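Input for the complex:
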Amino acid sequence: MVKIECEVCNQLGYLQQLGNYFRVRHYAGMNPETGKAKFYYHQQSKEYAETQLSLNEKQGNLKQQPIEQLNNVEHRISQDLYP
Ligand SMILES: [Zn+2]
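Predicted:
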């Protein structure tokens, strides 16, 4: 996952790509009812997201992964954080 500054609220979050649609995921604490992490999303413009991604790649970070893979990783991370 690639962490970038959100175009909407200027907070750091994880950039996600779904086809031509980009969004930043923000952590919103834990849901006490389900015990699971809560997230909210802000849509990013394609231009902004691609700029951030190319900057990120120049810094030698991991390249964007397919969304399926991303979801698996998120699932695992959630379990690690909240067993
Ligand atoms: Zn945001």
